[in-house]
Design a protein that fits this description.
Blueprint: E1 6-11, H1 18-31, E2 36-40, H2 54-59, E3 65-69, E4 74-78, H3 88-94, E5 102-106, E6 116-120, E7 136-141, E8 151-153, H4 157-169
Parallel strand pairs: 1-5, 1-6, 2-5, 6-7, 7-8
Antiparallel strand pairs: 3-4
Helix pairs in contact: 1-4
């Protein structure tokens, strides 16, 4: 079950430009007054701190959870002991949803119940996710695509943000 706050995914194959588009859309959404939460799925091991930093050394000494906190930001590092692919519903529970108006999700393209905008670049020779996934509400592309869904210009962050704002109000 998803939370009451609206959740919108950006689904695409690697290299399509999800992060690039989101870094341009998010400031437009926050400029419209929305408090944005973001969940990014990664297939890679990652560190949010660098070796040699106290927080890195303390966490890697054996902590299963480490909270880095300052007056500017906090970050909770949790080891996924079972090392199974993360589930979106569990990731959503990690956010403070009382302080968020909209959660954007990069990745998790196979989560059926997630409403998504599909990003598609025909030059990458990858198949469309739509219509196999019925939860896609629009396609953002750099070329004209024959679709019954709203077609957005992947290079026009303003148009994508406008679509999201209208969708959020619906």
């Amino acid at each position: 079950a998803f939370p009451a706050v609206k959740v919108l995914g950006f689904a695409a194959y690697s290299g399509t430009g999800k992060t690039t588009l989101l870094t341009r859309v998010i400031p437009l959404l926050t400029g419209a007054g929305l408090r944005i939460g973001l969940i990014k799925h990664s297939h890679h091991d990652f560190a949010i701190d660098r070796p040699g930093k106290d927080s890195y050394e303390l966490h890697h000494a054996g902590c299963s959870q480490t909270l880095l906190t300052s007056r500017y930001r906090s970050a909770l590092i949790k080891e996924n002991v079972q090392q199974v692919e993360p589930r979106l519903d569990n990731a959503l529970r990690e956010l403070d949803l009382d302080r968020i108006d909209l959660v954007l999700v990069e990745g998790f393209r196979h989560v059926v119940e997630l409403t998504k905008i599909e990003l598609h670049r025909p030059s990458l020779n990858k198949p469309l996710l739509y219509p196999k996934q019925s939860n896609i509400i629009a396609i953002a592309s750099d070329e004209n695509i024959d679709t019954d869904l709203p077609l957005l210009d992947i290079n026009n962050a303003e148009a994508v943000a406008e679509f999201i704002l209208k969708w959020k109000k619906s």
